């Protein structure tokens, strides 16, 4: 059932992808795992990085929210600073999730998070404090992370 | 995730577990239709308001259907009841009309409701309607299909979400009316987005209003909700949607869906069918029945007056049941009819009428253990103890004992007993003359329920203390209700550690106890 909805959404998103995103299905396509590359705009310290994101759709999607993880490390208050790359995105929280939300809207929210971090709802307290109190230091570290991790095309894990 | 969890403090881990905990997730999404007595039993030990309301409930609503309490129960209950009512009505054209009508709402759902991909949710609901329409000639099959679809998580999730967006769409379309009701949320649109669009978020009044108006009202369906709560009253409070249905004559209302609301939960109720109304008015017999035992005693007194029953006291001590077996005074009624045949032929005839009550006394024997103290209250205390020690065992003898006085009495006083019979039958309602033999006993035991409980409360207070509580907690009677540590004991008190016992302050008993255990 949900595959119909998912293929519909994938068709829409791959025909006219939101700006800054490229979306592909992994080779052994199950439709439930999407490989996404996010390219933040120049206004952000994350430019010119390319950030790999794995979007997983649960079997009971759309009644459970998609799961989004960064596979490229970045220095961001709302993304865990580790290899897991968990993201804190309001609309994906179970208590907020609406089955009528499009994946395109999720991607849009991700882009907004890159442009404007949400230090009040952080996953990394320390980075959030730094973002609030010493923006220059935060930006410097964010750029450093981009240089270290995000300049090359992301390599998605074979799942 | 794992890494994080292991890093958490114990308390945090527990809190996380508590947040993940979801109550009431056992069982199917929609259960089978079962007699609503189950609700009465469920609340038998609750506070008096619940007890009273749930005892009255099955008289109005004979059956109910349990709905899984996962936060969707109100939506699920309305949706299921809607489909089921369409099956009940059995009108294929109407069901197909519903498919067309709901499909025509599609534009409204996307333009006014603003919902993406609503077709996917809608499709499951429409498919189910079509499937039901195809099978409506075979309602049994249609119901099986319905129950099966609602217990298929992939299908029911779509149907429920479809009902959510239907309700929200109606509310948004009538924002001018409903904005004020959602002032806390800053308008109906925000309300819908925060309270209706979210999965597993329970239905609230506005959601019900939306569904009632968009889904039910156009086909003249009415939704009646019975509120079972602690509010004063002897019956559940009822409220109907749409609102104007509350003022109308219930008989003039369209097909009605019934829900039972208990704080935070909805189940489906089924009204006692009107066809059975006479049958259910027999239930009042059980209400009138309290007078039953009273009548019985009157009969007994008559007996002692008319017949010198010296054997009466023993038969009494034999277990109060022979009050019922005396009841067969009705048996004399039958005898009276046959009585003309002559005293000598009557004994065999007498055996059967007396035998019948005996059967009934066995039936009541089944409930004896449950309310053993009811009888004592009618009986002198000393005999009471005897009874309590051996209630069931003493059942068989009394009828035999009482059989002889009845037999002997038959030739003597057939006529005086007749009036008492008619009196009791008139007081207990519409019992036909011949019916009394089985009737008074079986309703009698239903009847006994409440008044007996009163007696039972009283006797408990006054004089039955000792025998039951001598055995506080002995291993031998561990499973007996007479054991105070048994949950069925009216003075239930769990076993607890008593330091004195260890020190043998109370003499031999603690020792015994220890040797027992």
From TrEMBL, chain A:
Domain of life: Eukaryota
InterPro entries hit by this protein: Ub_conjugating_enzyme, UBC, UBQ-conjugating_enzyme/RWD
Cross-referenced SUPFAM superfamilies: UBC-like (SSF54495)
SMART domains: UBCc
Every UBC core domain range: 1-151
Keywords in alphabetical order: Ubl conjugation pathway
Stated name of the protein: Ubiquitin-conjugating enzyme E2 14
Automatic annotation (TrEMBL), chain B:
Keywords: Hydrolase, Protease, Thiol protease, Ubl conjugation pathway
One Pfam short name: Peptidase_C65
Bias (Low complexity) ranges: 375-392, 401-412, 418-432
Stretches for region Disordered: 347-517
Keyword Hydrolase: yes
Domain OTU, chain residue ranges per copy: 62-272
Catalytic reaction(s) noted: Thiol-dependent hydrolysis of ester, thioester, amide, peptide and isopeptide bonds formed by the C-terminal Gly of ubiquitin (a 76-residue protein attached to proteins as an intracellular targeting signal)
Coiled coil feature spans: none
Chain intervals with Basic residues compositional bias: 508-517
Chain intervals with Polar residues compositional bias: 469-482
EC numbers, comma separated: 3.4.19.12
Keyword Hydrolase: yes
Protein name according to UniProt: ubiquitinyl hydrolase 1
């Amino acid at each position: 059932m949900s595959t119909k909805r998912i293929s519909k959404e994938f068709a829409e998103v791959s025909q006219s992808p939101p700006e800054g995103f490229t979306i592909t299905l992994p080779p052994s396509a199950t439709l439930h795992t999407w490989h996404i590359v996010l390219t933040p705009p120049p206004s952000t310290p994350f430019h010119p990085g390319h950030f790999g994101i794995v979007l997983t759709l649960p079997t009971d999607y759309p009644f459970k929210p998609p799961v989004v993880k960064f596979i490229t490390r970045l220095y961001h208050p709302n993304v865990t600073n580790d290899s897991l790359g968990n993201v804190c995105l309001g609309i994906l929280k179970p208590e907020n999730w609406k089955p009528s939300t499009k994946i395109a809207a999720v991607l849009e929210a991700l882009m907004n998070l890159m442009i404007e971090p949400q230090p009040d709802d952080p996953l990394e307290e320390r980075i959030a404090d730094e973002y609030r109190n010493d923006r220059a230091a935060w930006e410097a570290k964010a750029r450093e992370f981009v240089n270290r991790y995000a300049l090359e095309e992301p390599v998605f894990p074979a799942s | 995730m794992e890494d994080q969890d292991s890093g958490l403090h114990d308390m945090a881990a527990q809190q996380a577990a508590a947040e993940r905990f979801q109550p009431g997730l056992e069982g199917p999404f929609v259960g089978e239709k079962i007699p609503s007595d189950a609700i009465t039993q469920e609340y038998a030990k609750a506070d008096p308001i619940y007890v009273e309301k749930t005892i009255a409930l099955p008289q109005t609503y004979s059956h109910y259907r349990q709905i899984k309490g996962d936060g969707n129960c109100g939506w699920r209950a309305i949706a299921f009841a809607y489909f089921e009512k369409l099956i009940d009505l059995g009108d294929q054209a109407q069901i197909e009309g519903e498919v067309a009508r709901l499909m025509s709402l599609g534009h409204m759902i996307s333009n006014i409701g603003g919902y993406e991909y609503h077709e996917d949710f809608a499709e499951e609901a429409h498919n189910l309607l079509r499937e039901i329409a195809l099978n409506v000639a075979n309602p049994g099959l249609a119901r099986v299909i319905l129950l099966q679809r609602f217990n298929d998580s992939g299908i029911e999730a779509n149907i429920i979400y479809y009902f959510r967006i239907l309700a929200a769409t109606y509310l948004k379309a009538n924002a001018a009316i409903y904005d004020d009701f959602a002032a806390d949320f800053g308008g109906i649109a925000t309300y819908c987005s925060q309270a209706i669009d979210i999965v597993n978020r329970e239905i609230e009044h506005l959601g019900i209003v939306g569904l009632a108006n968009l889904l039910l009202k156009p086909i003249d369906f009415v939704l009646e909700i019975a509120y079972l709560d602690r509010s004063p009253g002897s019956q559940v409070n009822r409220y109907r949607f749409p609102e104007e249905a509350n003022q109308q004559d219930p008989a003039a209302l369209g097909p009605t869906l019934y829900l039972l609301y208990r704080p935070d939960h909805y189940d489906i109720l089924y009204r006692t069918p009107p066809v059975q109304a006479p049958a259910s008015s027999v239930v009042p017999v059980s209400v009138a029945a309290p007078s039953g035992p009273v009548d019985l005693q009157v009969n007994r007194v008559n007996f002692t007056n008319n017949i010198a029953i010296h054997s009466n006291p023993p038969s009494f001590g034999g277990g109060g049941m022979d009050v019922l077996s005396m009841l067969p005074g009705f048996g004399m009624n039958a005898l009276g009819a046959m009585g003309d045949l002559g005293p000598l032929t009557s004994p065999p005839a007498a055996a059967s009428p007396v035998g019948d009550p005996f059967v009934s006394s066995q039936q009541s024997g089944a409930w004896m253990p449950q309310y053993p103290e009811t009888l004592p209250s009618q009986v002198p205390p000393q005999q009471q103890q005897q009874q309590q020690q051996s209630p069931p065992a003493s059942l068989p003898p009394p009828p035999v004992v009482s059989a002889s006085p009845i037999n002997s009495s038959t030739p003597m006083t057939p006529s005086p007993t007749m009036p008492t019979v008619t009196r009791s039958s008139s007081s207990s309602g519409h019992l036909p003359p011949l019916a009394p033999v089985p009737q008074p006993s079986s309703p009698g035991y239903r009847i006994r329920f409440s008044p007996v409980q009163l007696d039972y409360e009283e006797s408990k207070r006054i004089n039955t203390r000792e025998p039951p509580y001598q055995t506080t907690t002995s291993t031998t009677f561990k499973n007996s209700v007479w054991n105070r540590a048994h949950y069925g004991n009216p003075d239930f008190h769990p076993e607890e550690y008593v330091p004195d016992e260890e020190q043998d302050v109370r003499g031999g008993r603690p020792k015994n106890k220890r040797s027992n255990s």
